[in-house]
Amino acid sequence: MDTLVDLLRDAAARYGNRPAVSAHVGLRDRSWSYRQLWDASGAIAGYLRTDLGLTPGTALGVWAPNSPHLVATLFGAMRARLTVVPIDPTATVEFVAKVVAATRAPVLVCGARAPGLEYGGRIVAIDDLPLEAGEAAFGDAPLASDVAEVVFTSGTTGAPKGVVLTHRNIVTNVQSALALVPTRPLRLVSILPLSHMMEQTVGLYGPLVLGSSIHYPASRRASVLRKAMQRNAANALVLVPQALELMLDGIEREVRRRGASTAWDRAHRLAGHLPMCLRRRLFREVLAALGGRLRFVICGGAHLRAELAATWERMGVRVMEGYGATECSPIVAANSYWERAPGTVGHPIRGVEVSLSNDDEILVAGPSVSQGYWEDPTATGRAFDTTGRYRTGDLGAWDDRGRLRITGRLTDRIVLPSGLNVYPIDIEDELRKEPEIADCVVVPRRGPDGEPRLHAVIIPTAPEPDPITSHDDAVEAVKRAGARLAPHQHVTGCTVWTAGDFPRTNLNKVKRYEVMEALAAASDARIVDTDRAPRLEEDSTLRRVCAAVAHLRSLDPTAINPESDLTVDLGLDSLCRVELAMVLEEEFGVDIEDGDIAAVESVAELCGLIERGDETPAPAVGTWPRRWWVQILRDVVQHLVLFPLHALVARPFVVTGRDHLGDVEGPVLIVSNHSSHLDTPSILRALPHRLRVKTAVAAAADYFYSSRWRSSLATLALGTFPFSREGMVRASLERCGELVDGGSTIVIYPEGTRSITGTMAPFRSGIGLLAEQLGVPVVPVGIAGTHALWPKGAKQPRRGPVHVHIGNPMDIPPDADRDELMILLEQSVSSLVKMGESPRLS
What we know:
Blueprint: H1 4-15, E1 19-25, E2 28-33, H2 34-51, E3 59-63, H3 68-79, E4 83-87, H4 93-103, E5 107-110, E6 122-125, E7 147-152, E8 162-166, H5 167-177, E9 187-190, H6 197-209, E10 213-216, H7 222-232, E11 236-239, H8 241-257, H9 261-271, H10 276-282, H11 284-288, E12 296-299, H12 306-314, E13 318-324, E14 331-334, E15 347-348, E16 353-356, E17 361-365, H13 377-383, E18 390-398, E19 404-409, E20 414-415, E21 421-422, H14 424-431, E22 437-446, E23 452-460, H15 467-482, E24 493-496, H16 512-520, H17 540-553, H18 574-588, H19 594-599, H20 603-612, H21 628-649, E25 650-656, E26 669-672, H22 679-686, H23 689-692, E27 695-700, H24 701-704, H25 708-718, E28 720-723, H26 729-741, E29 745-748, H27 766-774, E30 778-784, H28 786-789, E31 800-806, H29 818-836
């Protein structure tokens, strides 16, 4: 295996139809096998070389979120011998423009169209890339010495630096990393962007060698991640320390909510004396919420607190901390699955040589180390010495067993808890463009959680007599500048400097250390304390939101008001907003989208977002109704009890159109009219046995699941699942997707409730979305006669004829108009009902 193309070719040959990558698309999980991934990458390679005319060595910009399509694009570009330039999906259009200009990329592959992007080349939507076209025969396979990628570090918006990585660099690092974990297939849920080399090496290339399955969730929201881990039985995660902290915070909040803090503390005291298997049993309920299979996490990109790692270890989850840099492909040192030492980053990995300079700076050499930056000899000369060793800028030390500890940094670069690098000069340049700011310094300041945040110390252009007014003007200026910066560059705190100019060196450079010392000194006269305590309005939503934010950031709730800015005043960066969304979902029962929480600026806007989306959570339902033994029991109950009782009432019972299901193996979506409790038994009795045994019926959550006996009876006899007619409708639609992923046929009544008159009511709009996104055939069914036998409000049924008419299965195109689809389905069912109302039944 010399190249990444060899890696995928070998994996496809070895694992074939085994699931390789998957993603949650719409309402369902879409999985690609190893063979499909290889074929799709070949189709994309042919398109890039033949249709677009790109030649070997040409740069290809790729700016898209994680997905199987993105993985195929990366490999396809490499198969075409192009140089991939992966760009963080959250990067600003200004940053993207600089990157594609620096690499002279003639084509940019985007996850979506990018308004405002100044780019003279061709933009291709990633979803428009072919997946099944024939592969072109190039006759020039990539070489180990070919440049595979040019990766631009996340921190800079000034003159971005692109790290040049060859196939040999990356493959060598992957092979060394595989020695750190058991050589068996993994089930990963991917969280970090694939523009991050840690995610590529540890979360993609290495797992593919092992025959693993990698899932890309729709968002990083905690609720979405938990569901993804449960559905995919994830046994491993690759993440940054802050994400691991957020997961633990969510668990501990739930512990406090249940009043189980004492038991939680007792279990942790006991767990330290137990082997891993017993620790997992002790914390089995906690681990069950994460899918029940999580065995280890690989953590890197930023400092990991030793106690955080120890807490997860006590719960039976191994935490493997590592250290690296993009310039090193990226792993330099790491703890292994079998040997973990919290507080260290482990031993250097195989093939990597680590040494310390006289100043204790970490220097790295080896075949996985880059040769330098893209067309930037000056930056290369600064970062690499004459022997090719990479100067990391980090300070290190060895422990008594030869493990590396990170003790500090040499440079001004700030590493955020998210693992992203920030260069203060880029932010300061933007801040100085604001007329209210004469000068400024951006420094790291520890937040209440002990992690570094970006803090701006500002000298106002015209200081007001009232320092608070100066601060307010500075805050507004910081907000305006923030709109021009990437999310990870947003300043989360602001202080006014009142003592003239900053302390400077003889070369006029600001003495950042002295500024930070002054900032840390609460009594320093040069600092204006920006904490104020406005009165909290008597509003239930506002009070609950303020309490949630205050708890998250360890603030006084009275220091928060409706006008408080989430970023500048409250210090909520992008990952903190993800955690806040999780807290608010649990507190208010709402489902908050990533884009919505990212767009909110003030506490008042956040309250409005919650009030607009206030919903009652759908009832929880376990997996037991779909277990094989329950399906067998249900089949027995239906044949011995349900269908004989139905036959006593529905006389005669006529089914037409059953032959339309002759070639249908399932799953399908059955759409029917609804006017009686007899409808569901009628449909089940009409279906072929092969479909009926795996059929799930959507039942009104507020009726059938309002009492335990009714829900248990309906679930056992009819195979129902709770479907919210109001409130958390989206959660109910997603449950349909999960059931279809498991092979179940869905029966749904789009009218929403039984018709009182027997006349079919208009269908609700959600049926169009459901039919379009499930991606299975839709079978319209018309039922006639049941309303006359058991109308809504009647206590018991009477005997009479029932006619079930099954229509032709309909294949729904993925881009179908949902409103038109709703109308089509309504018309189809209506016509079948009229056919069933034929006089010959009377």
